Amino acid sequence: MRVPFIGLLVVVLAVVTAVMPPAREIAMAEVPIMRVDPPSLSVPAGAPYFTVDIFVEDAEGVGAFEFMLLFDDLDLRFVSVDVGPFLGSSGREVYCWPIVGDLSIQFGCNTEGEDPGASGSDVVAMLGFAVQPGAVGTTDLLMLDCGLATVLGDAIPVTCEGGSVDVVPGEIPTPTPTVPPMDSDGDGCTDVEELGDDPNLGGTRDPYNFWDFYDVPVPTAFNGGTLVDRDKAITIANDLLAVLEYAGTSDGGLCNSGPDHIPSTADDRCYDQDNNGDGQDDGILYDRSVGVTWSDAPDGAITIFVDMMLVLAQGGHSCQAPP
C-alpha cells in the first residue's frame, strides 16, 4: 500500500521535532569585543587633554592583549597611554610596551603569575589626546587590529570596534584637566621625569622609548628575574654587573662561560635562553644599542665596548623619587 506523501511528511517532521533540542539551547558562544569607549565623544576645539578608554566585554581567561589604533594627526595629537584595571584584576603581574607612530598607537600588555587570567568586562587601556590647533569636525579613531590571548598564549577570538571624536567650536571649560603622571613606555620613569632636563632624575629621555633608561632585572633572567625586578635606578652594583654576566653573548651566537668561568657548564649565560619564562630571549633585557641621547633598542649583541659603556654613562641615574 502506498503511504500518502503528506502523511509521510508529517511523520518525518514529528520525528525531527522530537530529537531537536529547544532553540534556546543552540546558542552560539559570545565573542568578546574590544572597543573604543565611549564610541562617540564631543570635545571642545583646542582642548589640551581628553581621554578615551579601550574597553573589553565578555572576555574569559585573558592573560594578554594588544591593539593598534589609528588617528588623524591633523586633528589629534597623541599624549599618553596607560594600562587599565582589567588585566591586573587577575592578580597577575602586568607589563606593557607601547609603540607610538605619527598616526598610530600600538599597545600591548602581558602578564606573569600563577593565577588564572582576567575575566569579565572592564577597561584595558586609557589613551590621552590633545586637539590640534584649528581642528574642527568629526575625526575617527580606527581600531585597525586587536587581540586577546590566554595565559598560555593561545589566541582568543575578539571583535574590534573603533570610535570617533567630534571636535566642536567653543570655549574650553575651566579648570582644564591636567595630564596625570604616566609611564607611557614602561621603563620605570614617568613621562614627567623623562621630559625633565636632569638626566640624573631620568630626564632628557624619550617618554615613548622603553630602551633609553638602562635599568635591568636583578636577579638576572638566568635566575628568574623579569621586568618587575627592576628598581628604577641604574647602578654599578646591580645593572653593570648584571649586563656583565651576558657580555660576549649574541642572538644566535655562542654562550659565555658564566660566573664560574668554566665553559660548557650549567652556569653558562646564553642570549637565546628563556630561563625566566617570559617568552622572549633573556639577552634582550640586557642588550642595547647607541641611541640619540642615551641607549636604544637591542642590536643583538652584548659587548663591553657598547653595552657596558652605555650602562656606565647612565650610572647614578634614578627615577625612584616621585616627579
Strands, helices and their partners?
Layout lengths: L4 H15 L13 E5 L2 E5 L5 E13 L1 E7 L5 E8 L1 H4 L4 E8 L3 E9 L5 E14 L5 E13 L5 E2 L2 E3 L1 E6 L22 H4 L41 H10 L43 E2 L4 E2 L7 H10 L10
How would you describe the overall organization of this protein?
This protein has 323 residues and is an alpha+beta fold. It folds into two domains: 33-168, Sandwich (Immunoglobulin-like); 191-313, no CATH class. The chain is built from five helices and 14 strands. Strands 2, 4, 6, 7, 9, 10 and 12 form a seven-stranded mixed sheet that branches. A five-stranded mixed sheet has the order 5-8-3-1-11. Strands 13-14 form a two-stranded antiparallel sheet. The relative contact order is 0.14.
- Could you name the CATH class of the largest domain? Mainly Beta
Q: Name the average pLDDT.
A: 86
Q: Give the CATH topology of the largest domain.
A: Immunoglobulin-like
What amount of the residues lies in strands? 25-35%
Ends: how far apart?
A: 95 Å
Shape annotation: globular
| CATH architecture call of the largest domain | Sandwich
Structural class: alpha+beta
Poorly predicted regions are 1-28
Helix segment count?
5
What is the count of β-strands?
14
Largest sheet: 7 strands, mixed
Reading the helices and strands in chain order gives: HEEEEEHEEEEEEEHHEEH
> What's the number of structural domains?
2
Percent of residues in helices: 10-25%
What integer value in Å does the Rg equal?
26 Å
